[in-house]
Amino acid sequence: MSASTETTPTIEVTDAARTALLEHLSRDPSSRYVRIHVGHG
Which one, out of 7, 10, 32, 33, has a CA that is 20 to 30 A from the CA of 39? Predict the structure, then answer.
C-alpha cells in the first residue's frame, strides 16, 4: 500500500493569507477552524 497525501493535507499559510485570516478572526472570533491554523504560524 502506498501512502496517500490526501489523508494528510498540508496547508501552507502565507503572510498575505495569515493577514486575511486575522482580519476574519476580528470579525468572527468564534471561528475555531481559522484560529487553529493561525496558531500554527
Answer: 7
